[in-house]
Amino acid sequence: MPSVLITAFEPYDRWSENSSWLALVELTRDLPLEPRVVTRRYPVDFEQVRSRLGDDLAADYDFALLLGQAPGIGRIHLEAVGVNVGGHSSLLPDQFQPRVEDGPAAYRSALPLADWAGQIRQLGIPCQVSYHAGTYLCNALLYLTHHIASERRLRTRAAFIHLPLAPQQVLGDRQDVPSMPSSLCAEAVRLIVRSLGNISPGT
Fold first, then answer.
1. Residue 162 designated active-site
2. Cα distances (Å, whole numbers) of residue 65 to 14, 84, 93, 135, 174
3. Which of 29, 35, 141, 180 is deepest in the core (most CB within 10 A)?
4. Is 151 a catalytic residue?
5. pLDDT at 203
6. Is residue 72 in a domain?
7. Domain containing residue 81: CATH number
8. d(Cα 126, Cα 108) in Å, to the nearest integer?
9. How far is CA 3 from CA 29, 51, 143, in A?
């Protein structure tokens, strides 16, 4: 049976909840029988994530689905590319550094993101492929997952899924901020999880 690692993030900054974790909790209420799923909640801290990710990937999962929230988006983004640059939000872009010295400039997901996006839209859930996961921790997680898998010759194939904020996160916001119910986000991720059972395991 294929195995999949699904990660989400804990709250950070002004957010008392994280839509990625809310969606993952909702997803676990009705998981498909296959593939075998293992879940993790990561802190919003680069060094801790790097260490925990390395430990988790040692299990050599077939797939990794990495969830994160993206304030400001109104649809689910399936991130295709992780780039080898980044930094903390307190830094200027010209102060950013490579996430991995001498690492490749970028990694692109080998999973069928465009097919997934079309299938999710058929469910009535806004979704699209995105080619830029940013330059902060979400991008770092996507890049590092590919890099660790490549360096250790693991079979793990990965994708990063950016989710809109949940409605309860924006109720008190004075600005018009897009949101999406966690149940819809979970339904989209559930479709992806089910489809992983039909993808031939890596070698």
1. yes
2. 25, 19, 27, 19, 33
3. 141
4. no
5. 44
6. yes
7. 3.40.630.20
8. 22
9. 18, 21, 20
| pLDDT tens, position by position, 128-151 | 999 988 889 999 999 999 999 999
pLDDT confidence of residue 89? 73
Q: Pick the catalytic residue: 138, 146, 185, 187?
A: 138
| 92 lies in some domain | yes
Q: How many domains does the chain have?
A: 1
Q: Which token pair is 69? A: 């929230």
Concerning whether 138 is annotated as a catalytic residue, the answer is: yes
Would 159 be classed as within a structural domain?
yes
pLDDT of 202 > 70? The answer is: no
Query: What is the band of 201 on the pLDDT scale with cuts at 50, 70, 90?
Result: low
Point out the catalytic residue in the list 127, 146, 162, 187: 162
In a domain, 202, yes or no: no
Residue of 26, 77, 79, 185 with catalytic role: 79
Q: Which of 165, 2, 134 is nearest to 70 (CA)?
A: 165
- Determine the residue type at 124: G
Range of the domain at 152: 3-196
